[in-house]
User: Fold this.
Amino acid sequence: MNTRKNNCYIITGGPGAGKTTLLRALRKRGYKTIPEDARKIIKQQILSNGKGLPWGNKVLYAKLMLEASLESFKIGHDENAITFFDRGILDTICYMRIIKLGITSEIEQIPTTHLYNKKVFILPPWLAIYETDEERKQPWQEAFETYEKIKKTYCDYGYEVIDVPIGTVEERVHFMLKNIDPSNKIN
Assistant:
């Protein structure tokens, strides 16, 4: 599966930067979007009294995240239309590094065979919109540090990381679409 899918774009960044809101706006415009796996896993684990949580069994949580990231990649990879992912496989690898989980060479190789478009859109930390909730418990400083580590991880794997400026949802959507198609012939 060592083929790059140029129609598959990652939107990433630290927690609470506006990724989900941005993906909702893109979906309303008719784009295919792949939701974030982390929140889905956290909800499932909470409902089932599971232990695979970022504040519980981090190793199990990372394993669930990697499995879900690979499944999301497969779903999006099968599409030919422009597809936006709320995070990618490298976000999971980054999380594994943050929690100092030993990463096997096999896991390190996954991002070299599961390739998205070279352009990765990263949303910087934005204190004005940052909120914690039952699924997002990281304090602001940790969210900022996570952003820095995610950016470095994507750069380390050769992606062109594009900072999406802080602004209205519409301004951010326009910025991204202009970067995908400079002639702006797409929605």
